[in-house]
Model the fold of this input.
Amino acid sequence: MTTSFSPSLGSSPPSARACPEDESRLCADCIARPWSMCAGVPDSELMTLERAVTDLHVDPRGAIVDEGEPAQHMFNVTAGTVKVYKLLPDGRRQIIGFLMAGDFIGLAVRQSYAYSAEAVTPVRLCRFPRKKLEELFERYPSMEKRLLGLAANELAVAQDLMLLLGRKTAKERLATFLLMLSDRARRLGMPSNPVALPMSRTDIADYLGLTTETVSRAFTQLKNLKLIRLETTSQAQILDTEALRDLTEGG
Amino acid sequence: MTTSFSPSLGSSPPSARACPEDESRLCADCIARPWSMCAGVPDSELMTLERAVTDLHVDPRGAIVDEGEPAQHMFNVTAGTVKVYKLLPDGRRQIIGFLMAGDFIGLAVRQSYAYSAEAVTPVRLCRFPRKKLEELFERYPSMEKRLLGLAANELAVAQDLMLLLGRKTAKERLATFLLMLSDRARRLGMPSNPVALPMSRTDIADYLGLTTETVSRAFTQLKNLKLIRLETTSQAQILDTEALRDLTEGG
DNA sequence: CGAGCAGTTGATGAGCTTCAAAGGTAGTGG
DNA sequence: CCACTACCTTTGAAGCTCATCAACTGCTCG
Done:
């Protein structure tokens, strides 16, 4: 049995399922660990880590954190895809990132979350109470060092997205997006050429600062240029990586 | 005598002037310290800090770091305004931030800088060799902790800018920008109501993802709405903060 | 099989860019 | 001190990209 929609896990006791028995809860087996801040904890000390975290599953469309809610937890994504977004009062939405294994949610200096996060696919998360995390950092400084490195990476990704949003055309944005997803999948050891597009066209549009219609037209353009082929709406075969890469920079 | 243009300070021995005698080089006197990562170093240990850094001045339009160059240093801005930007091969530019006292430049996990930085006003900087910085972090973990906090802040600012670039109209962007500058000036203890606009219209345009013409027209619109008044082109009086704030969110 | 939603395609229009020129402002030299 | 020059900013007119509105297709799931 699975709950189809989860409430925000940020502050209230979540109805999200605890980890079922058919999957390991051991940090030693965690696929995401090498890419996450947990890589800063020595193998021999993983039990300390396990005592601090709660393993959670969230179904697609389930909320993980809500903008403005008290930031009591930090999360590590260990499987699946999460979208992180900000809203304007009139409903305009900007997705500021798609998170995957190894990424974190909820690094906040302030009291409350600066954004909302929601599962795109079935997602698996490790939840750290902020206080326990502080203790872990005290005990394993390299864990905090590692988080700084991840934050620096996030920052670089954010800056690339700013360049995209401020200065690229629709076609260039989509080309950039497809290569970004492909590269990331490769880094995570997942299939990188038929690129997986688990998110909807609306999500892609809200990430690229466009509308679904424009995203759809851009897909058609790339198809007509023989740069990609859509196996299904959620799987894109890249036919000419070089030409696509040229496109991302206006070539 | 002052050199009007400085080469990049990132890797080569800079022709930027060392700090002249009429200004203190002591960290104890540093105005930016409370807002910077140096706040993580106890007062009694400031001499260690002083031995590690080089104090630099850069004139307007002088380069500080160049995208792609080896990232051998990190910088702290202690006075003045710096613009940080990325370029596309065809010259399109996106300014990803205006930095002021307390902000850092050059947090990079990778080997080279991910962006360029250039002085807008006369700028004062502390330059940290990456190696010495590592030693400082070893010695003063709270300094690295503080840097993590600053990076988290940067990230939040970046995310706000993504929302602006992806989803706001020209008028909303300018309103957001003016309030942002005003708030920041206040936090730094500088005059916040006639907002200082040290950067050119072109710089503002490249920050907001617009053209100079559109920025100029947006200024005119805000003037006509009686929300602001331009004392000079580089000083904006905010006449109705509330209405302006409503505008930033589409109200 | 039909309902409903996601995605695609088409037609029109708005907002911003581009191209062009005039108005200001600051710095320079007589 | 003022005139001249050069650049920055503002304003105007036309064009283009993307948004909006609308219809259609195809897929998924009772």
